[in-house]
Structure formats: structure tokens, C-alpha cells
Design a protein that fits this description.
197 residues; alpha/beta; globular; homotrimer; 8 helices
Amino acid sequence: MSTSFFQIEEQWSFRILRMRSSDGMNRLTRCRVLALTAEIRRLAQEPLPLVITGNDRFFSAGAELGEIGALDGPAAYEFSKMGQTLMSEIECFPVAVYAAISGYCMGGGLDLALACRHRIASPTSVFGHRGAALGLITGWGGTQRLPRLIGKGHALAMFVAAAKVSAQRALDLRLVDALAPDPVALAGQQIMNRHLV
Amino acid sequence: MSTSFFQIEEQWSFRILRMRSSDGMNRLTRCRVLALTAEIRRLAQEPLPLVITGNDRFFSAGAELGEIGALDGPAAYEFSKMGQTLMSEIECFPVAVYAAISGYCMGGGLDLALACRHRIASPTSVFGHRGAALGLITGWGGTQRLPRLIGKGHALAMFVAAAKVSAQRALDLRLVDALAPDPVALAGQQIMNRHLV
Amino acid sequence: MSTSFFQIEEQWSFRILRMRSSDGMNRLTRCRVLALTAEIRRLAQEPLPLVITGNDRFFSAGAELGEIGALDGPAAYEFSKMGQTLMSEIECFPVAVYAAISGYCMGGGLDLALACRHRIASPTSVFGHRGAALGLITGWGGTQRLPRLIGKGHALAMFVAAAKVSAQRALDLRLVDALAPDPVALAGQQIMNRHLV
């Protein structure tokens, strides 16, 4: 399976969903969100552990703000709902889902990573969320999942300051489970260890 | 097809979708609702009459209140939407859907039974809906379908009192179409009689 | 693939989705919207250019107003969401989608045509949208897409006056791309020319 939004790489005992885009930013446009949702549903029919990843510079730059700005009320709300559906499908995936993060993991992209059961990041990855400033995007579950993961105080700071968080800081906050130069490789290794014994 | 939420049993000319869960209560959690929706959509591609059932003690205990309580506003609303989508998919299933009910059939579980075209219950089954007390759950269509089926007065009484209704009373109210010691067997028999002549 | 709502006709290098209904009006009922959404998703898995059409008298008469009237608030909102989802799936279809329009193309049916990339109409086709008068139906994206296509002034006039627009006027407004006695045939020809060179 290969579309303009992602490609699926079948490994021996798991799958890699590699997001891709012409500008490399893997923006979560409406059409990408729909395509990812359909693919997650399809993969869930014959589930294998799944590693979701991007490229070296971007896991995902998040939602497409230009697109959101062009939406009127109901359409913006629908877009928010679409994202929530994608996050729920990932969260409910019958077997483990790993986010393997290199580069920027921002906004809706961070929401997506938070919906995965495990997060492994490269030492140069960067995390951020515009949080409260953009009510819409935080409708994707990040405002719920982040506090549960790293505590209310840190999450609030991250949202309010819209601060960029380094990989090391993300590890300290337990926003990610581990750092590795090649996050996809470590995810694959953990899948072999944890799920296939 | 078999997941932790249900299994599909292929009969000669119809299918049984048997809900299951580790605690036997078949709670309509977010993930179960998503899994059931995906399965109903899948079955609709090559439709056969369908019997939805649970176990002897529970058809379904309804939504997972703990889960709902943990949701913030948008997420709770999304959960309500998910349930509505499941009910619509059942209601729009291209051929007949039967609910074969034993034991408790409560709240969202009753909504699900009401979305089916026919309901057959065991003499020991019990029905109930928390109704108005829980605005959220009644967002699954029960507040609409129940009055249409049993009349406004009876439905209101059932919601407001949150009373448990016995199988015999449910039959008198025409909330169910028939009682039978083995509801799945009678559903199967009715399918053979009605749909395959 | 053939249901009571549509049939799929496989051509050499594209597909025709022909809506059908017992009364010929191709009303966008809740069940039809769900069935179309499922089919568009299914076709997107192995995409070919798609021509959506109706019959000689009706592309589609739009949503089922009687059905909408019977819905309470949350259900009506869900219905609006369902339609938006269908429109988004069409808009995000990986290859070109053509609306081939004969006869009436009204309300939600016009929203559907507007979600397609191209519109070809017969000289006797008629367009209309109840617009502002029915907040609900315009929730399907027509109020956004129409102004983008034909300009704010013309769109407003069309909504407010709820005027019926002739095929020739629709062409002048660039609401449709071309007129042809057999819109499906021209769509097929354009697909051959544009997409298969």
C-alpha cells in the first residue's frame, strides 16, 4: 500500500507506516487524516504491531493551519472530529502501535504520537503544542493525553508557553519512552522482544 | 473473525455476532464501539441476516461510565457521536438485524438493541435506561427510538424512573417482539422463515 | 457492486457510480449517505477515475427533509456530520471524480456535485439550494464551496432566493464545467483525454 500520504512497509512480524509528503512536513491535512484513518482501519482487520514514523526532519508539523483558517464553523468542527476519530482508531488498534519520531513532532502530530502506545524519539527530535492558543487543534486529544502522561503542571506549561521541548527534556518528562539514533530500528527491536516471545 | 470484543459465527444462511468480554458485561467502551462499527461495515459489504447477541447474563451493560467521566467536553461529545454512528450503521444494514437478548440489556446496550430491526429476549432478561439522568448516553438514539416503539408515556416512565423492566413487561410494551428460552435459536428460525422462502 | 442505492459500472479505465432509487429522486437519506460513504472508501483502496451520476430526471433531489424533521437535535447534528464526511471522502478521493448531472441537482445533491472535482451537466439540468433557510443542509459544505466556485454574490443570491438555476446559467456562472447531451459520455471522454495520456 502506497499513497501520496504514506507508504506501508511490511516487515517480518510488524509493519511500518511511513508518512510522506512533497514538502516533507507531513502536515495533517483533512485528506491525510482521512487517508490515515482508512489505512489504520484496514490494518486493524489483520493486525500486526505497527510503527508510525515520518522522515528525518519531520514526524509531522501538525494540522494545516491555512486549511483550518479557511473553514467555517461547522467544517472546522468536522475537521476536529476527523482528527479525534483518527486518534481513537490508533488508540483502539488491537495490537501495539509505536511512534518512531525524528525531527519536529508538533501540534496535531504530537497528538498523533500521544495516541500511540509507545513513543521512541531520536536525540534531535523536537516537540511542541500550541495548546490553548488554538482551541481547535487541541480538540484532537492532546490536552487530555499529555497531562495524563507528563502531569498537569508540565502539560500546562507546554501548552501555555507553546514552548518547544527537546528530546532529552521529553525523555525526562516521560513524554517519550526512549531515545535512539534510529527510532524505527529500536521500535522494531522492542516489538521483537515484547510481543513475540 | 474474532476479536477480544466479539466473534462472528457463520451459519448456513445468516451470521451471529456474539459480543464477549473478560468480565462478561460487554460494556460499550470507545474501543468496542469502534470495533463493532468496523465489523458491521465489513459485514454490510456481503450482507446476510445478522443476529447480535451477548452471553446468558449480559446482552450489554451499556456504556462505560468510568470512561465517560474521564472525558472532557469535546471527547465526550465525540464518544456520543461514535455511538450514534454505530446505531446508524446497524439501522441501515442492508438486510435484517436481530437482537437476541439474554440477561441485562441496559443503557447504550438497549440503544443498540433498539437499532436492530427485531428483538427476541429470554424470559429472564432485564431492560433499563438511565435516560434523562445521563444526557450523554441518550445521545445514542434510545430517546428517539424507544418512544416510537412503546409510546411516549411508557418511554418517559422508563427514562425518568430509570426503572428496570422485566422481559414479560418488555413484551407487553412491545419493546421486544417475542420471548424465547433460546433467543438466538428463535432468531435463526425466524430468519429462515421470513427471509429465505 | 450493486445495492438499492447505487450500482457500480466498471469501464475500461474508470468507474461509474450510478445512484438509483425506487422513486427515482435519489434522495440523500441517512442510509444512502452511509452507503455512499462506505463505497467511496472502498473504491479509494484501488482508485480509478470515478463518474458519479443519477438518472435522466434526477441527479439527486437532496436530503430527505421528512427524515430531518423527525430528528431531534443531536441526531440532526449527526446527520449533518454524516453528509460532511461523505463530501470530504469525495473531495479527498485520490483520483479525479466527475459529477455527470442530468435533471434536478438540488440541496444536498448539489453539495455532492460541488465536492466533485469536475461537473458536466445536460442542457436540461436544474440546480438549486435552499441555502440559509435550512441551516442544517448547508452544513454539508455547499455554503463554502459554492462561493469559492461562482463568487460570493452569485452564491448568496442562489441561497437567499433559493432560485432554480438553469444548465446554461450554471455554465455561465462556472458552476458546471461543460454542458453535454450525455454528461456521462463526455466525462468518460475527458477522463480518457486528461488522465490517461
